[in-house]
């Protein structure tokens, strides 16, 4: 991700990173984000 886009994402937090994905993919993304120092939450969509 380019620096400009990453900065915009951080400054707009909290934000939905991905939607309508499998629970396994959501957990993998959340794990990667928390490993990088972010706070992540996987929500059950309706």
Mean pLDDT: 88
User: How many E-type strands?
Assistant: 0
- The ordered string of helix (H) and strand (E) elements is HH
Shape: globular
Major sheet: none
Quaternary structure type: single chain
Beta strand %: under 5%
Distance between the termini: 29 Å
How helical, in percent, are the residues?
A: 40-55%
Radius of gyration: 11 Å
- Our count of helices gives 2
Indicate the low-confidence ranges by residue numbers: none
- Structural class computed from helices and strand pairing: mainly alpha
What's this entry about, in short?
The protein is mostly helical and 46 residues long. Helices cover 48% and strands 0% of the residues.
What does this structure look like?
This protein is mainly α and 46 residues long. It is 48% helix and 0% strand. It has two helices and no strands. The mean pLDDT is 88.
Q: What features would you highlight for this structure?
A:
2 helices; mainly alpha; single chain; globular
Set down the secondary structure blueprint.
Layout: H1 3-11, H2 23-35
């Amino acid at each position: 991700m380019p620096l400009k886009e990453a900065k915009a994402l951080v400054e707009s937090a909290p934000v939905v990173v991905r939607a309508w994905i499998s629970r396994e993919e959501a957990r993998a993304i959340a794990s990667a984000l928390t490993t990088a120092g972010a706070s992540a939450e996987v929500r059950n969509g309706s």
